[in-house]
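Protocol step 4 of 6: structure prediction from sequence.
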Amino acid sequence: MRKTNLNKIMTKGKAMFLAYDQGLEHGPVEFNDKNVDPREIVKIAKEGKFNAVIFQKGIAEKYSEEIKKSKVPLIIKLNGKTNIRGGEPVSTQICSVREAINLGALAVGYTIYLGSEYEPFMMKEFAKIEEEAHKIGIPVVVWVYPRGKGAEKRKKSELMAYSGRTGLEIGADIVKLGYNGSKKDLKWTVKSAGKTKVVIAGGTKTDEKNFLGQVKDIIDAGGSGIAVGRNVWKAKNPVGLSKKIKKIIFGK
């Protein structure tokens, strides 16, 4: 097993990722006439100096030329679902590790819905992905989101820390999770994740001041950074906001 190299998608243990997997997860309702075009996202990622951009395999393939020219590192999400199907959440694999690498990915990602009745299935699928990726030597990012009947009666603070610990226990290099707004809880989450890097999801669109405050909380609590989508590419000045985020995370 080769040692994974996080330096290709992180800077001294810190990260600023631009996420754009919402087209599958939420549908095009999130987009306007400008950001519906993946080329606009690649442009923001390049000009905003993001550590990596996150796409599903279709965009990675269809816009491979633009991605290569931008020289922004690529993370490909290996599983996905729509929001049309009801019931307990489950996200299945739609791209292999080998296919992602052939498309230029320097890391791969996978979502697990903690508390869903399908959690064991996703855990098993992730295990195979993690083993294959680490044999090749590329990092694995796990999205851990508590959803489903099993998570309904648990406290948000407990679930956030559990999400972080899950990332460590299943062998992820980076765990991406939601922030409950408590810096104290996030500090415990980071500690619970051990040597697995904690990156916070950007979440739903909010005002710039509130969002930048959350980014500061993340860094103050020991988090490694942010994987942001809508709060950047739905902003009036995406590149300008990206520079503000970068200053908080990297201090420059």
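Step 5 (inspection) to follow. The chain has one domain: 6-250.
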